Amino acid sequence: MKVIKNLTAILLCIVTLSMFFTKAYADGASSYKTVDEAAATALDISNEHKKSGLSVTAEKAVLFEASTKTVIYKKGANEKAPVSYLTKLMTILLTAERLKMDKNFTLDKKLITSAAANSKQGSQIWLDVGEKISVKELLKSVTIGNANDACVVLAEGISGNEKAFVQAMNNRAKSLGMKNTKFVDCTGISESNISTAKDIAILSAELLKHKNLKGFFTKWMDSVRGGKAELVNLNTLVKKYKGISGLKACASDKSGNCIVASATRNELSLIAVALKTKDGDSRAIDAQEMLDFGFEGYDIYAPEIPKDAVEPINVTHGFELKADTYVDGTARLVVKRGTAGDISVTCDRMSKLEAPVAKNTKVGELVFKMGTKELMKRNIYTKNEVKRINIAGAFSKLLLSLLRN
Length: 405
Description:
The protein is α+β, with helices and mostly antiparallel strands. The protein has 11 helices and 21 strands.
């Protein structure tokens, strides 16, 4: 009886294979038209200065949501300007990244003060040539006190010399998409350090990812070198603003008074950049007004992903009948408070695929809209590879299936 059962299974395999390949030639390629390959777009509210109702006095300014990279308010945000000691934000970022990637470069590591560092003028902690000082104290001195000598010690400790470090600064700026930025030193002493309000916001958003820096950025007063050097934060908002997380204030003759103030409430992480205000009070007022405007008027909205968007997709002529799917990224939007209910989402995806199917094959997209305005797109991809079935594979698979029953 077992022999008869096996022969029956083989005959059924042959008949089925014949039907399989006949159908394969009849079906041909899928008739689904591939969705547009355009990259996902982020919501850009972009309230211009005159339309917003804000009274920001800075010549150039931006209010930026860090987690979604959304511009909420702008005033000459892409216009180049000298950025003075805000340059140090890139020095701090490269230091934070070195701390993260190099186990031998720690907060306790002692760096040696060179003659070049000792010679720096302006704000400083009066380091002596040959003096050893920890990375932690150097970071304090740069984040809180804007110390130029400490900045150079960090640069030399990371890259060997300031020139090589500046090259690394510009390379990192390029990788972040800071298209209108050029650094010429690590301190910001030169008025030839050029950037824009938006580029500085992009840099600041990257800095905020390093949670271990918050304690430095939000400190109002501190001291280093055993109390020999007192540090006072020029960003006065650290003393009083709810949810403050940093970042830096400074001033010079050419750049005027500048500030980057960041704060987080609930899931909204805002960065206010104000370049060239008339005095220290004005820069703090401008930053606070922008932050208040953002927190009072906007929310983070995370729409639900429709279940049918991530259902397995049918695969013809494959070893597997279906491929699992996923939506790229996390769908998060900045929206005006009270408007989240007006957002709609549509799912456009293929009904089937033909093997072979590569992993991460795009099979559709989600489109988020408010009325007729498109806010954001998210692509849908396959999670796994599905190989095309051949004669031997189909025969083996069907035979095993029949013999198990």
